[in-house]
Write a structure and sequence with these properties.
Layout (H helix, E strand, L loop, with lengths): L8 H22 L12 H8 L5 E5 L5 H4 L2 H9 L3 E5 L8 H25 L6 H17 L3 H7 L3 H25 L2
Antiparallel strand pairs: 1-2
């Protein structure tokens, strides 16, 4: 018998809550991500130099096209360094409410996608381990699968990518456990 997505409302919501709580514990209690961020050698000079930049993504040296990136001037700047990719975020009071809401919505969307794939792959009454394997595979791939791109394309140290992937593995296993536990 097929499993409807409405019958999976509780595992969708509870797995999103479990991941939200786990991520809060990882970032606030375990704090193993704290070592990923370094201080610039002259932070005040950098702050002053960036003061006029609006919120957005930047690259240094900047090239607007592949043609510009192939000029001797750009190649010289890149060779001399520094080369950087930078994100300027809104400044002011550090309020994380918006990001936390967005993160929870993202967790719900992932859980919904896990529910969809698992409901197509398995029938009602499937045993815990089968549900765990399907839901876990989808959830781990979703939470952790794209992490290597940050190192491959954007220069994130691999140690940070490994930590992000570990987080994704934890989130995926939690999601799988909730789906296995509450599978109809």
């Amino acid at each position: 018998m097929n499993v409807s997505l409405t019958s999976l409302s509780l595992p969708i919501l509870l797995s999103a809550v479990a991941v939200f709580i786990a991520s809060s514990l990882i970032w606030m209690a375990l704090k193993y991500h704290d070592s990923e961020w370094n201080k610039l050698p002259d932070e005040e000079a950098a702050r002053n130099g960036l003061r006029g930049a609006s919120v957005g993504q930047y690259s240094v040296p900047h090239a607007a096209s592949m043609e510009e990136r192939n000029t001797p001037e750009w190649k010289q700047k890149y060779q001399e360094g520094p080369a950087a990719m930078l994100v300027i975020v809104p400044h002011g009071t550090l309020a994380m409410g918006k990001q936390l809401v967005q993160w929870f919505i993202y967790c719900v969307i992932i859980s919904f996608l896990v529910a969809y794939v698992t409901s197509v792959a398995l029938t009602a009454g499937a045993d815990y381990l089968k549900v765990f394997r399907v839901a876990g595979t989808v959830a781990v791939l979703t939470y952790a699968g794209g992490m290597p791109m940050k190192s491959i394309w954007f220069g994130q140290p691999w140690s940070g990518t490994v930590k992000d992937a570990l987080d994704g593995l934890i989130y995926g296993l939690l999601t799988a456990g909730v789906f296995g536990w509450l599978w109809p």
